[in-house]
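[09:14] KT: can someone run the structure on this one? pasting the chain below
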Amino acid sequence: MRKHLNLRSFTLALMVLTGNYLSSLADFQAAIATTPDRIRQQQERLCREEQGNNIGIKACIWLEYDTADRKLNEAYRQLTAKVSPEERSLLTEAQLGWIKLRDNTCEFEVYRSRGGTGFSGFLNACKTRITNQRRVELERYLTKQN
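[09:31] RB: done, structure tokens below
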């Protein structure tokens, strides 16, 4: 029963996010594949249209985090392509550990804001800052590989 309820909730949320009625498995699979880009488009629209209020500010902060994360992922992909398999394994392990460190650090940093309207914005701002720092580190490693 619990799994069924979670899948129904997920499907409903996905329908709302995508703005489509998912009438078939193919529709569902296509919606899952495009959701990150659609979420980004939704946040871009909110950032533009809702400037100056809490919704717009949160959308803009989320976009900054998403952009930082995409740049970090690109630096990571470039670096993993240039290192040996042994180095790649170590880098992957380090990156997974770094993600946990970033998330826990930011959760701690904004802990006292929990329950407040600014919590998600503060959390994403922290993640943006730390993600940009990690991207710079990876880009330095990449420069040394060239």
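[09:33] KT: thanks! The radius of gyration is 18 Å.
[09:34] RB: yep, looked fine to me
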